[in-house]
Every structure is written in structure tokens, then in C-alpha cells.
Amino acid sequence: MALNHVMSWSARCLRCLGNALAFFVVELDGALIGMVTLDRLASEYPGHVRPEGGEAALGYMFLSQAWGFGYATEACAAALDWFADTLPGEPVVLTSQTANARSTRLATKLGFTEVARFEDYGAEQWFGVRSPVTPSV
Predict the structure, then answer these.
(1) What percent of the chain is predicted at pLDDT more than 90?
(2) Across the chain, which distance is largest between two alpha carbons, in Å?
(3) Which one, 35, 49, 69, 83, has the greatest CB density within 10 A?
């Protein structure tokens, strides 16, 4: 079961490569500890805030040894700042299994708001959106 889940995830990620907006490698003292990605979410995948799809989707993966130190928060915030400067006014979406409490807490900390839940990969998914900040006049 776990191998099928990994294979399914890998196959989906490979299909998304053409939609890549940014890929950030996260290092600590010269060693890789994680990565942050921003990709265009293809219309055939569940979870969208626009009818035509194509939203920017934030993804991240960190070594378990790097969990709990704020590295993911810092790296994702930097990636989101880069995105906001590069494509101002664009919303960003994020999907995580609801069972992954750390990931959904991180999403909330980064300013994502839950807008839906749905079934995918054999588990309930949390879907959130981070709306662009409108500058005050």
C-alpha cells in the first residue's frame, strides 16, 4: 500500500514538471534539508479556486531531522514572498492530507485558509488558498 502511494505521488509529480514555476533547494550549513516548489495546478486535479484551474500550488518536503525548527516556515515564506513579487495578485493553493497536522498548521501559519476537503490518494485532503495581499492606499 505505501509503495503504491509513493508511486502514484511520483507519477503525478512527473506529469507536473511542465507546470513548474519555481523549485527552491533548502540548505543548512551546506547540507540539503528540504525543498519548496511552486507549480501550476493542472485542471484535472481536485481543488481549485478558479474554474479554469492553473493556480500556483505550493509544495514542500523536508528531512525529518529538520522538522520542528521553523525551517519549513522560513523557506516557504521566502518562496511565497518571491512569488508575490514575481506574479503579484496571483492566489496560491496548497493541498495536504488532513491527517498531517504539522502540514496543515504550517499552511495556516503561512496565511492559507481552508476552502475545501476532498478525497485523493486514498485519504481526506485539506485544500487551502492564500489570497494575494492588496496594498492599502
Answers:
(1) 47
(2) 53
(3) 83
